[in-house]
Structures are given as C-alpha cells and as structure tokens.
Amino acid sequence: MSTARSRAPEFPAGLEWFNVKDPVSLAEQAGRIVLIDFGTFSSVHCQHVQQDIKALGRRFRNELVIISVHSPKFTAEKKRSHVLKTINKLHIEHPVAHDPDMKLWSMYGNRYWPTQVLIDTEGYILGAMTGDGKRSQLELIIQYQANRISDSGETRKRSLSLQRTREAPSVLRFPGRLMASGNRFYIADSGHNRILVVSSSGQLIRQYGSDVPGFIDGNGSSAAFDNPQGMALVDDFLYVADTGNHAIRRIHVRSNDVVTIAGTGNPATAASVDESGTPLTVSMSSPTDVVFKNGKLYIAMSGSHQIWRLSLIANSIEVFSGSGYEDLQDGPPGSAAFSQPTGLALVKNKLYSADAGTSAVREIDIETGIVATVIGEGLFEFGDSDGAAATARFQYPLDIVADADNEMLWVSDTYNNKIKRVGLVTKYVSSVTCDRRLDEPGGLVFHEDTLYIANTNAHEVLSLNPNNGHAEVLNVSEELVEI
C-alpha cells in the first residue's frame, strides 16, 4: 500500500445515504479508522468484500467505521429502489452512499471494482487495495492502527446514528432458484437461508435449513445454509449450490439428511483447482447453479468465472471450462472467458449459461468444453433489445431454462425486469408478455407447460401461462403439512 500522506476527500453534498439518519461526514469520524469500500453490488467480487468487511466490523467495532460507496456498473443499479433492495438482500448494516454519477469514485481516483480505501484517525489516506480476498491484509493494517489508538488512550465511541429500512415480513424472502418434479416444487428461499418443498398449491411439505445462516450438516431444519441458489434433483437426492458457503450440499429427500459433498466453506482465492484433492478439500467461489448429466454435476462457479465439473461416481472435481479471467471470450476451455456465470441449462450435448457480468448467453459443448456466445458483446455491453443475435441485448441475466421440445431458451433478464425467449436455432430474442409486474426476477423452471418465476425482489413465486401472459402468485403456506 502507498505511504503517501494525502488527506481523504470529504463526501460531497448530494449523495443519497442508506442505513443512516443523516449524511456522513469524514471530519466527524476523527479519532477512528475509516474503511471506505467502493463497489458495484452486482459484482460477485464486491459481494465477497461485503462478507470480509462485516467480519472486520465485528472485530474492530470500537475503532473502525465502515462505509460502502455504491458506484454502479449497470443502468438498473442507479435506481434508489434497487440499491435499497440489494442492501437488504446482502444484509448490509453499515452506512451506504449511493454514487450513481461516479463523482466520489473519481475524486478518489479509482479504476477497479472493488477498491477498499483505509483512512487514519487524522483523516489521511493510508492506502488502497483493489479486488477481493484482501481481508488478512486489511486486518493487519487496521490492527496496527487500533493499537496506536489504544496506546494514545483516545478511543472514540460510535458517532453514527444507524437506521435501516427493512423488508416487510413475508413467507418468502428474496427467493432465488426453483426446481420442479412431479407435484412438488423446490424453492431456494435464499433470504431465509433455506430450501422449501411445497405442493403445486403452495402447501409447505418440507424445510431444509432455517432463517439463521450457517454451514451445518444435519437433518431438515437442523441443517444450515447461507444464501442457497441453484438445485438439481437426481433420483432421491437434491443437489444445492450453497452460494454463501462456497459449497455443494446434498439433500436426501426421503431421509431429509443434509450433507456437504464439495467445498470447505471458505472462498477460493484462485481460479485453479488442486485436482489431487477430494471435493471436500477444494475451495470454491460462489457456486450459483448446478445441472446433472451422466454422473456429473456441472457447476456455475460465479466467483471464479468458470464452469466446474464434479464427478459423483469418481468423487473428483475439476475446472471444465473457463480460464478464470473475467471477460467474454469464446474458444477452447483453457482460453475461454466468462463473467459471473450464474444459471445453467442443458439441451442434449450443449450446456447453456446465463453470463450475468457480460449480459450474455453462452453455449458450451459438453464433450469438448468449447465455448461460443449466443447473445452478448462484452463486459460493458448491455441493454434491453429484442431481435436478431447481433443486436439483441440483456441486462444482468441470472437464470436460464431450456424448452427443448420447442427449441427455446427462457432467460430471466433480471435488471430489465423481464423474461425473454431465445430460439435455439434462430437465435432470435423476444420479450415474454406478463400481466404482473416483475421486480428483478431470478430463478425459472418449466412445469407442465407453465413457467414458474422467482420474482425475487417482490418475495414471491409466479406461475406464468406463456400463451396468454397471465401470471398468478403461488401462495406458499407457512404451516407445515405432512404428506
């Protein structure tokens, strides 16, 4: 980190603040260490930083002030409603400044998301770090500065008046991905850190995990998840991408036992995999979806921008496709590049990925791992356009589901608040009519010619008739019904 002594720029007037009653002033934080986290909440790396700074805030609660500055990448992220929802989704409790015009970003001379700036007790910049995975380095510097405060005997108490705007109580909380089998639906009730099994009418049949985040194997609600997302049902086993725990969990749907089959619970710091180890010794980075084929789970490893493959037969794990470099690059698996692959769909020998960071749909050959782009242009190319592949645009799509019979892909175009169709043959994109307002829809699943949608920010699941565009809410019951 730089040792140049320069005073930190004060927060300009006009920023919109969250989680505090009044705008924050750096001058008023004199005597305490300040950590400013610059990021865009859509970035998986910025989300990882949030996990780290929460831990730092707990350890140095008396010496450290944490402030996040949201410097958005996508158009949708500039809206106040989006920022508030995301703050609640990520459980952020410290002050957040919204900087949609990137004014504060420019004042600090930032170039990369995320960037963490440390400021000493006198208001001078100690230095800046970019990227995630810097918790240990930050901890050492903060500890050194905290010791200086302790030696001086001038410990300051909190000067910020915190005030959160919370979501209204609801049965579901930011539901993520969906699965359907027979007359049962599996809902990743991500904001409640649990998996729900419900009937076609919404009656609650089973619950795995509870409202409290954790990383615990167990039976039913005695187990614990952290922001579970994508699921794959194989015979009597439900495989879950436990995103917040950086792990793959397996639920036996008859015995209700939950066990971890891959991941250590800690995020990976590199995009490579030590294939000599077992899946339980390999660190993962924000797995968000899983699909199954021929004894193998294919995993959307959002945090390392890759597709991984876990053999359930050989109990081995490997990188299937993607160099780990964040970009939109087609080609062989070792040189191809993704950006936050978040949703997977399988059609015969082709794997399709919703590539959120590039607002793209990618196609991966299941035999060779070779990648081709179906829709999308690059890291900073996004929009809301239907039409031919060359001109069609998405904005941060999170999930994708295949309708092989009709040669169609369905995509949750999340930041455009739409569902879109992509022809497998024609590559033509069209928006789906829906007579109910969508609010950043996430997971999708087809069941008996009906499209079910996790209307994430509205805390609900919708059933949509694709033929007439009529949508209804699936009324999920809170009362457990034994079936």
Question: Explain this structure to me?
Answer:
The chain is mostly beta strands and about 475 residues long. The protein has 2 domains: about 15-150, Glutaredoxin (3-Layer(aba) Sandwich), CATH 3.40.30.10; about 180-475, TolB, C-terminal domain (Neuraminidase, 6 Propeller). It has 4 helices and 31 strands. Strands 1-4-3-2-5-6 form a 6-stranded mixed sheet, covered by helices on one side. A 5-stranded antiparallel sheet has the order 11-15-14-13-12, with no helix packed on it. Strands 7-8-9-10 form a 4-stranded antiparallel sheet, with no helix packed on it.
In short:
The chain is mainly beta and 483 residues long. The chain has two domains: 16-152, Glutaredoxin, CATH 3.40.30.10; 178-473, TolB, C-terminal domain (Neuraminidase), CATH 2.120.10. Helix content is 10%, strand content 34%.
